[in-house]
Amino acid sequence: MYIQCIYVSELLTVRIPKEIRAKMRKYSHINWSEVVRNAIIQKIEEEELKEDIRKAIQIMDSIRLKVLREQGAARDYDSSEVIRYWREKLS
User: Fold this and answer.
1) Where are the domains of the chain?
2) Residue 12 vs residues 32, 48, 91: alpha-carbon distances, Å
3) pLDDT truncated to tens, each residue of the chain (91 aa)?
4) What is the rounded distance in angstroms from the CA atom of residue 68 to the CA atom of residue 83?
5) Contact 82/67 with Cβ under 8 angstroms?
6) How many CB atoms within 10 Å of residue 32?
7) CA distance linking residue 67 with residue 59, whole number of Å
8) Which of 3, 31, 34, 86 is the one with CA 20 to 30 A from 11?
């Protein structure tokens, strides 16, 4: 049985200053395309993490507002009691 894999890729052109290109030629043993690919992947992962954190913050804020609406903004409201309750319930 033969499995054929087709990899689809796109070409990206990057403009760099001549001085940097000259330094890159000095280290021609380095696969600069791979360096650029890895940098792009790392930046994408960082942005995705930031996006996930923003979503988590929004969810936490909406939960907090919901609890405050249900419990009221009373001075005797203790969030630590609610946290203990949910920790016990979920464990």
Assistant:
1) 19-72
2) 13, 21, 50
3) 667 777 788 999 999 999 999 999 999 999 999 999 999 999 999 999 999 999 999 998 888 888 777 776 666 667 788 788 888 888 7
4) 14
5) yes
6) 14
7) 12
8) 3
